[in-house]
Amino acid sequence: MKLKEIDSGIVANLIDENKEKLMYYAHILAKANARARLTGSDDPIEIFDVHVMDCAMALPLLPGNAWVVDVGTGGGLPGIVWAICRNDLSVVLLDSIRKKCELLSDMIQHLGLKNVQVCCGRVEEFALSNFERYDVAAARGVSHLGILLEYFSPLVKKGGRCLAFKGPRAFEELREFYGREGKLGWSGLEVWKYDLDERELFIFTWQKSRDAEMKLPRRVGIPEKRPWWR
């Protein structure tokens, strides 16, 4: 498997063009952490350097004028970062915890973002009413890689793609099902490598090339209890 390199020049330009708003987001996210644990830090500088910068690395991988769903968004990472930097995107922030969703709605209002909406619910239930609606489904810091592929499949239209932010341990997860993801309609795996804050990080992407061979979505909780590849 050959690792691909992200165009860091595109990332740097988009960050420079939107730095003031991205930093403001980091500050309001830090304040929101006092009310609900949305991300691992309440220091806005650390949030910017670690979390905002990480999310921005995927910007060159997103198609133009795309409908995007951020699964398990937490504090809006990566969805809010993408919406700030790319006003051609229409972004849905999906989370199952109502308190987080309320805080996300407040943050979006403060940021004045018109291309973002918040949906509160479990991904399996959300997929029933949003079947194959999105060009891109993404997640950062959420679940096993194989389970993410099941979550993403019913959300993404054929010809769309999914993105998963992961660390080096994801290659162990990948080995559990590699070569069988066609069962969910996925093909064309690409792994994008980048370094951030002395950490080696990766974005795993697949294309939705055909219908899944199994009926999706399954009931809430079943993807974790009975992984599709076992």
TrEMBL record:
Main location per the UniProt record: cytoplasm
Enzyme Commission no: 2.1.1.-
One CC-aspect GO term: cytosol
Top EC class for this record: transferase
Positions bound to S-adenosyl-L-methionine: G72, L77, V123, E124, R140
One GO-annotated biological process of the protein: cell division
Compartments, as annotated in UniProt: Cytoplasm
GO molecular function, one term: rRNA (guanine-N7-)-methyltransferase activity
Keywords: Cell cycle, Cell division, Cytoplasm, Methyltransferase, rRNA processing, S-adenosyl-L-methionine, Transferase
Family to which the UniProt record says this protein belongs: Belongs to the methyltransferase superfamily. RNA methyltransferase RsmG family.
Protein purpose: Specifically methylates the N7 position of a guanine in 16S rRNA.
This protein's name: Ribosomal RNA small subunit methyltransferase G
